[in-house]
Sequence to fold (618 residues):
Amino acid sequence: MTKYKELSSLKRKEAVFGWKLVSPAVILIGVFILYPVLYNIYLSFFEVSLTPGQSNKFVGLENYRRLLTDPTFWNSFGITLLFVAITVAGSILVGLGVALLMNKEFPGRGIVRALILFPYVAPVISTVFAWQYVLMPLNGPLTILLSNFGIMDITQDVVNNPNNAFLVVSFYSIWKNFPFIYLMILSRLQSISQDYYEAADIDGANGWQKFRHITLPELYYVLGSLVLLRGIWNFYKFEEVYLLSKEARTLPIYLYQTAFTGIPDLGVAAAIATVLFIVMMALITVYVKKVLKW
Amino acid sequence: MVVRKRSFIKTFFFWFFIALVIIFVAYPFAYMVSVSFRYDSDAFDSSLIPKNPTLSQYAQLLGFQESIRQEMSQEEQQLIKLLESLPEEQREQVMQNIQSQRRRESFPFLRWFGNSLLLAGLSALTSLIIGIFGAYSFSRVWYPGRNMVQRSVLLVYLVGGVILSVPLYDMFVRIGLTNTAGTSMFSLYIIYVIQTLPVSMYMLGNYFRTIPESIEEAALIDGSTRFGTIMRIIIPLSMPAIITVFIYAFMIGWNEYLFASIFIRPFPGSYTLPVGLREIFFSAHAVWAKMMAASVLTAVPVIAMFMAVEKYLTAGLTAGGVKE
Fold:
C-alpha cells in the first residue's frame, strides 16, 4: 500500500480532503458502535453496577458459567436457531414464488406490486396490533376461520402461548420480510437475458427445466446473499418478535429481559450479547468469504 | 384445442395465485382499517364491512372530539368540588389518586406522534448529511486507508441494536444522559443517527459510483471546488437515492422500540409511538377500535412516503441492499 509520505502534494491534498469528509462518520461509528462492541465484551466479565460511586466487580468467567449452565439460555438458543431457519427458508420460498409470479406482465400489475410492499414498509407496531387482532382467541377473524377448518382451537391464545408463540412470530416475520426478498429476486430476474429462454424453447425444454437450468443458476448469487443477510438480521431481530409476543423467547428477548426488566443483570446480559456477537461474526465471515468473495 | 385448454388452466392458476398473494398481504390491513372505523361496541364484529361506520376514533385521537375518557373527567371535576369539604391532607391524597388514574387513561396520541416525528426526522436528516459526505469520500476520493473505511462500514452495517443495547445504556447512564426527559431524547437521537449511518453511507456510496466521473471532472476544469461539485452536481444527481435513504433512515427511527423503551420509559411525556401504543395496549382494556385507528395513523405517513417514491425504491434498494 502506498504510504501517505510518498504521495505528491496534489494527492496529499486530496487525501486530506477525503479524510475530512469521512471523519464525522468514522468518529461516530468508532465511538458509538466499535467501542461499545469491545466495551460489551469487557462488561461481560464484571458484575455491573449502575449505582453512582459503586464500581463494577470483576467476576472473571462467572457470568458465562451462569449463562451456559442456565437451561433457559439453551432453550432460547434453540428457539432462535429454529426461528432463523423457519423464517429464512419461508421468506425465501414465498419471495421467490411471488417474484416468479410478478415477473409476468398482467393488467393491474402496478397496483399489486405496490400492495406487496405494504407489509415491509408498514411500521412494526401497527402490523403487530393487526395480527394480534385477527388472531385473538374467540373473536379474532382468523381464529374463527382456522378453527372452522379444525386447524386451531378457538379458545386458544396462540400469540401468547409459550409453546407455539415462536411459530406465530416466524409466520409474522415471513409475512413482513418476504417483500424485501421478492424485490431483490425480481430485479435479478428482470436482468436475465431472454435469449436463454428462447434457446431453451427451441430445444423443447419445459417450464420446470427452464427454471431448474436457467433461472435458478442465474439467481444463485442473489439467493446466497439473501439467505445470509436474512440469517444475520433475524438472528438478532428484536422488535418484530418482542412486540408481537413476549412469549417467543428468542435470545434477543432473553437478553432484553435479563438486562432491562426485573432485577437488571447487565453483566450476564453483556455475556449474552457477546455470544450473539460471536455467532453473528461467524455468519458474517462466511458471508464475506463465500458471497462477497473478498 | 389442446394447447388452448392448457393455457386456460394456466391462466386460471396464475390468477388464483395472484389472488392468494393479495389476500396474504392485505388480510391484516383490511381488518386494521375496518376496525378503525367502528365504535368500541362493534370492534369484535366478524364481518369485514363495518355495520355502523364512524370517524369518531380518528376524531378522538386527533383531538377534534373529546373521548369518553375525557368526558368522564367532568364527573371527576364534580367529585373534586365535593372534595373541597374534606380536610387538606385527605384531599391531596384523593386528588393524587384521581390524577394518576387520569394519566393512565389518557391517550396523548398526537404528542407521541410528534415525538416520533421529531426523533425519526432529525436523526434521519443528520445521518443523511453525514452519510453523503462520508459516502462521497470513500466512493470518489482516493486516500490511504480508504478500503478499510469502506469495509468497516459494510461490517458495521450488519451489527444489530441488541448487541449494542447493554454497553450503550451503560455508557449513557455513566455520562448522565438518562436523568431527564430532554437528555434521554438526545441519547435516542444519537443512537438513531448511528443506527442509520452505516446503511445511509452504504446505499449512497453505491449510488454515487453510478454517476459518471466525467461530469464531475468537467465541473472541476471549469473552476468548481471539490466541495462545490458535491453540492452542485453529486447531490442534485443523486436525489432519488437521497430521498430513498432518508425514508429508510426515517423508518428505522419510526419503528425503533428497543432503545426507546430503555431510555424514555420513566418519561411518559417523551414516549415515541411504539412505546406509547404498547403501553396503552397493555394497560387499557379492549380498546381495539382505537388501537386500530392509531395503527392506521402510525402507518399512513410511512406508507405514503414509500408509495410516493416507489419507482426509485427498487433501484435504491437493490443497489444498496438494505438494513432494518
Summary: The radius of gyration of chain B is 26 Å. Residues 130 and 269 of chain B are 30 Å apart (CA to CA).
